[in-house]
Amino acid sequence: MTTIDTDPDTGLDPLEFAVTRNLAAKSAADRDAILASPGFGQSFTDHMVDICWSVRGGWHRPRVSPYGPISLDPAAAVLHYGQEIFEGIKAYRHADGSVHTFRPDQNGRRLQRSARRLALPELPVPYFLQSLRELIAVDGAWVPSGEDQSLYLRPFMFAKEAFLGVRPAHKVAYYLIASPAGAYFKGGVQPVSIWLSEDYSRAGKGGTGAAKTGGNYAASLLPQSEAYENECDQVVFLDQDRNVEELGGMNVVFVYKDGTIVTPQSDSILEGITRDSLLQLARDRGHHVEGRNVSLTEWREGVASGDIVEVFACGTAAVVTPIGILKGRDFIDEQPSGTLALELREELTNIQYGRAEDKHGWLYRLDA
Ligand SMILES: Cc1ncc(COP(=O)(O)O)c(C=O)c1O
Asked: Same structural domain for residues 179 and 220?
């Protein structure tokens, strides 16, 4: 077990994880073969973490066990009413071999906000951080060291109580699994084409758009298929007033010719940690940053007039992706290309991989 002191902010003692080693863990040779070309979300490490929660017992039975299927009662509430949330965060191997993650307190807090919206229990942030460290303690060798590679960590929580009544579940499970991830773009970052979803929305006012919950992603799959049918990579959603929200899994950022950076902000958008970090790096360079509504009209007219000089998407998986084309039912707008998105991408990844000074104290060491 990793030794961690009582958390100074919450006064919580660390959990005592029961660790069961996977006797069928992959050999070093098999693991290395996977790490040589991991793709995304296809292979998983040898272990997983879980913590139970119940109304009576609170958080209990923290475990590290062999990765494998979860046994669920067919009446488990998550299978019927989708009471589920998740997170996405990466672990990076630095040149000296150490393993770090990036702003995990932010993911821990966002998991708590998602939990509140989905009427799930809030996992204390120190437990969230400890879960990441416990998994790395047994599966640290799975953090790849190749360029732009990482170990993608997927914390998630769901209602496991067997009960068909519609109410917040009294029994819940938190899990953490991990999957090695290769470079998102092979052969350099490529601009993406975006399909404008006119018929479907992702979120509504007062809905679950700001929570990282499976239902939002389920709702995005049909419009995403429409994007593929229209030869686009991703889909962008509008709100009821035709303001830009975000892509299916990334935030959107606009760069104006006077250097101002604008990004949509509303309670129907997931608050991205990548976006927040890039905007901080932009502020450090002297850019003025605004979070506000951006209408589709402002976007299209801004590009046409030359007021908008760059548009990019950002999120943990791809980090930063320039937007090359916006396509709607009756238009195709080529987007201007600039250099800021890729400069910020480089600056951020240099911090994440330990190649540049971490001025904001964003890194969190997982293997010590
Ligand atoms: C819908 C959505 N928006 C935005 C983001 C970006 O969030 P983050 O930068 O924290 O990964 C994600 C996740 O990557 C997402 O799923």
From this structure: no
